Amino acid sequence: MCRNIKTLHNFKPPATDEEIRASSLQFVRKLSGFTRPSKANDLAFSRAVDQVAQAAHELLDSLVTNAPPRDREVEASKAGARAADRFRPSDTKHPIIGADQPASGQSRPSGGGGRPLNARSLAGRGERRS
Question: Which helix (H) or strand (E) is 32 found in, with range?
């Protein structure tokens, strides 16, 4: 629901009115729980979007930074790479194996509940791992 709420500060070129309005709309949708308000709530919903957009404009206009402005195209390509990695099929992902995990096919002692034993769990049982 909040896919259009993006960082709008410190970009070159600066955020457009349309981008600020889209973020404001998504914010009000999230707060209200409505994708589209009923006719009875339409006026309050529209007023809220306008007020959030105005507050966002004021905020963006008053923020100060020493960092150089970010390039939209570079940030978009980074986001695309993150999304491609996130949505890659699981069979092509490489599992992260910690140093304390055995190689596949080997078993490890368990403290119950499928959790591996560690020094703390053994100490609590009065046992010592060798």
Answer: helix 17-32
